[in-house]
Amino acid sequence: MPVLLSEAVRTLLSGDTLSWAKFGDFKGGNIQLASAGARRLAHFLLSCDQSKVAGANEELFDGGLKWRLARAVDGQLEYRHEQRMVQFQDLAAATQLVLETEKNATASVNVNLTPEWRLESHTTLSRS
Prior knowledge:
By secondary structure, the chain is of the alpha+beta class. It is 20% helix and 39% strand. The chain has two domains: 1-47, no CATH class; 58-128, no CATH class. The strands form two sheets. The chain has a four-stranded antiparallel sheet with strand order 3-4-5-6, with no helix packed on it. Strands 1-2 form a two-stranded antiparallel ribbon.
């Protein structure tokens, strides 16, 4: 019996096991998104532009994470993917649209040595 896409999505996002029978040359099987994190990722990807998901477009995962380990150590991770049109005055002889792509990743780790002293580090990786 065929499974509707909406039924398969509902089953996976609920954490239940989705099973299917052998069909033609395709084997039967099952899958379960057992962790809440896996279900959140699946929900996020299903809500995105499907052409970006299928093309593994890095724009989907722009964002950052601030973290803290007790009171002594904290930091931040951030990723940004930008795509923009080149200024027309820079394209004197261009006959087609030109896009610039830039990827930036930053990370910082900070350590509180004493109540008065704090060691801060920061690094940035950029790729155009």
